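Subject: Sanity check before I submit

Could someone independently write out the structure tokens for this chain? I want to compare against mine line by line before I put it in a report. The sequence has 744 residues.
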Amino acid sequence: MLRLLTTLEGAGEHLIQPLGHHQLLLVLLELSLLLLMSRGLGEVMRRINFPPVVGELLAGVLLGPSLFGLLFPNLYAEVFPQSQQQSDLLSVVSWLGVLCLLIVTGLETDLKLIIRKGKTALLISLGGIVIPFVTGFGLGWFLPETFLADPNKRLVFSLFIATAMSISAVPVIAKVLMDLNLIRRDIGQVTLAAGMTDDTIGWILLSVVSGLASSGKFDFGTVFRSVSAAILFLAIAFTIGRTIVDQILRWVDDKVGGVTASLSVLLVLSFLAAAFTQYLGIEAALGAFVVGILAGQSRRFSREAGHILEVFTAGFLAPIFFASAGLKVNLLALLEPQTLIFGLLVLAVACVGKFTGAYLGSRAGGLSHWEGMAMGSGMNARGAMEIVVATIGLSLGVLNSQMYSIILMVAIITSLMAPPLLRWSLSKVTIGEEEAQRLEQEELASRSFIKQIHRVLIPTRGGANIQLAAQLVGYMAHQNHTEVTLLYADDKSRAEASQAATAEKDTIAVAAFTAASQVMQLPDDSTLQKKIESGSNKVEAIINEANKGYDLIVLGASEKTRSKDSLFNLIVDRVIQEAPCATMVVKSHLSEAEAESSTTAQQPLKSILVPTVGTEYSKNAVEVASTIAAQTGAIVTIVNVINLPPIEYILYERRTLHPMKDIASDLLEQQAVISRSFGADVQTRILKGTSPEMEILNFAANQNFDLIILGSNIRMVTGRVFFGHRVDAILKKAHCPVAVITAP
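---
Independent answer below. Compare away.
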């Protein structure tokens, strides 16, 4: 026992002590001051139409030795002591800001955009990298030794300066384009694509140069290892890694679900990748950036989680990082004659090199003079990315405080220059007819119901109703990359059921899945999943699954559990009431007994009827019908019923009917334009009568339509689902299948 106590006493001498009271006090005070100043000045800059990052950087400069340290040296020394341990505490928060900023940048990186604008973007990017890299390398080679942290590492220093001169700031460029409402213009897309390509190449260069700096020497073996590690990491990430990240996000979404889980797994994967690239010697920033890109491409990543991370980063981590970077800047040192002269020289080389390279690349890519001017102006903005580069250079011992201050000055001034120059040059760029048509199509798509459907849930127990519903989903899936989930919901868990009951349930589920999947015929780019889920009741099992980020629930209209108090049946009615997303309920023309037991082939669809009253719900029905018609060759007939006045107003009919016809014609033409935009063959009809639902039913029967699609909102009447008398009447009396589309 004595020996054990002695051992414990000895071990106690080596225990890691908790963070000291004064150290914690200081780091909390530092974070408060930096956040207050950076967010305050950032908002000031935003209001005068400059990037907030400029104000966030200036906050650190003002709290640093340039102003706060000059006016109140004793207080400055107390709040920001020159202690390595205290500085490291602030650096940890700053590095979290760097990594989260790059994750967010990765989430916003559109690889399809880069590929679509590939040739032009690549030429601009190469021009915007090669020329600044060459001029930056020459600058680094001839700068006086006083600007070098280690005069014996001039080659690595020159490569680092060259990389710093080559980088651009996509967030600054994107913000200006958004402010000018040019983000979706051709010139805006090319600018973003070029900036993203530029940054991607820039991070690879930075990783290689950082590897050289870490090794402390330059030789071809080191270069080869750094380049090979970067290329190998990127190759694995964008092949196997893409699938791994997507599968992990899918698994977490299926098993856990929710925004919190999605955000947590993103951060875990990003930090692991950052640790891996840091281990390889190619910089942690690249790993976080790449995982951000991969997560952004996954359909299962929660956009809300990405938004939360962006807000938290923009509101806390990024301002702390930028302000911390500004703390290291000493403007007094920049005012020294030699530093000022060479600082202005660095600024001139940075601006001329980037502008010239981007302009020449734009002209080589076929852009006009003013488009080239806009490219040069936009790509010249360094902003946040330059600061990240400078911070890495300082931490690796490549840059001294003097050169670090100069590079931050370049980042601030180029970020201030970019917005007015971009506004001026882009105002000279005219829009072409083809681009105008594309923008109009994108505007329509942004308001489209069907184009927002990417994940579809189909609860099924077999039968003709759900088979027809699955057939319609198969046609709709041609509009977007769609993930369809067939769900067999049960009210008893597998753990509670006997082995025989479980086997029977599995057999029924497989039969239901097979019946639905056979008629669905999804396109190659869609995916199909099959699930068996349990809850305290079937509705709970369906809603629990629906809450995992689905865009549409598709239901069969009738089952044996139908009640006189329900529109369809108790289960379907409750699902419609509690659904977190849009629903589509499909009712076939078969009798209830046939609908529950039949296995049907694909039903031919040659003509589709869509009644409309011009509401958003009617437009949704038109979009669904048009998508189905575009795949089947069916003709879509859009009708509007003029409700004739009662007999006592018959004397006024001639006077009132003509304006009503004009309104109906305009309404139908608007809906027809939407239908044609989906590639459907469409015709319109105006019907007249005192009972719109009977006019629709008679017209549908006389013209022998194969399907009626209705749009409706959900109304609650004494606890049951109610779509309105007209929709209810059509559902009950139609001779052909009916689908009702609702939106939450």
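---
OP: Matches mine. For the report I'm noting this point. The domain at 605-736 is CATH 3.40.50.620 (Rossmann fold).
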